[in-house]
Q: What sequence folds into this?
């Protein structure tokens, strides 16, 4: 029997992963995702674990290769949207992305910015990024869209002289600070631990 839940997490990746793991602990395995839809089937409680990763900076080919790599390792993957865009034929410019991912369309990576990864519980912690370098690079990639939004908000706020862009600028500063705090925490850990 399947169960459908409707949620929107946006860029709150940790919250989304925590919720998916709580659903798995209750005995629900993810089988399908949509814009706001998460569909589950019943399973043994605690049988699966989930991680959510941001892949919006990747080209379509890189994202597909990464998903195939994870599947080859034995994980199950789901692509998920980060925004609630209901348009057809939309094009998004991502100047902070890698070559081939800077223009996202319905046929490439538009509405496929997140990757939900499932593995069977084996008693080991589940992380997609395990080395200091991987974690630091991931944080830097997460920081780029926030920095871009901040710069655009500042420029448009000055040019248009409206407070609305100031709100977007403030939101982006929060995202930037969260990424920067995580990078500082990782740097501190790297100095005190062996990776």
A:
């Amino acid at each position: 029997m399947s169960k459908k839940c409707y949620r929107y997490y946006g860029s709150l990746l940790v919250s989304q992963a925590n919720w998916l793991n709580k659903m798995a602990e209750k005995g629900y395995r993810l089988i399908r995702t949509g814009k706001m839809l998460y569909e589950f089937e019943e399973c043994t409680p605690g049988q699966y674990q989930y991680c959510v990763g941001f892949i919006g900076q990747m080209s379509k080919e890189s994202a597909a290769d990464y998903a195939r790599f994870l599947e080859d390792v034995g994980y199950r993957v789901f692509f998920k949207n980060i925004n609630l865009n209901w348009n057809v034929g939309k094009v998004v410019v991502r100047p902070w992305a890698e070559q081939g991912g800077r223009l996202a369309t319905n046929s490439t990576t538009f509405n496929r910015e997140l990757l939900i990864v499932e593995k069977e519980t084996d008693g080991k912690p589940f992380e997609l990024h395990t080395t200091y370098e991987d974690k630091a690079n991931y944080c830097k990639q997460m920081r780029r869209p926030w920095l871009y939004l901040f710069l655009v908000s500042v420029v448009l706020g000055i040019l248009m002289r409206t407070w609305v862009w100031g709100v977007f600028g403030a939101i982006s500063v929060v995202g930037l600070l969260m990424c920067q705090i995580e990078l500082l925490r990782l740097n501190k850990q790297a100095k005190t631990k062996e990776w």
Remarks:
- The helical segments are 13-25, 60-73, 132-160, 163-192.
- The chain has a mean pLDDT of 87.
- The first strand starts at residue 2 and ends at 6.
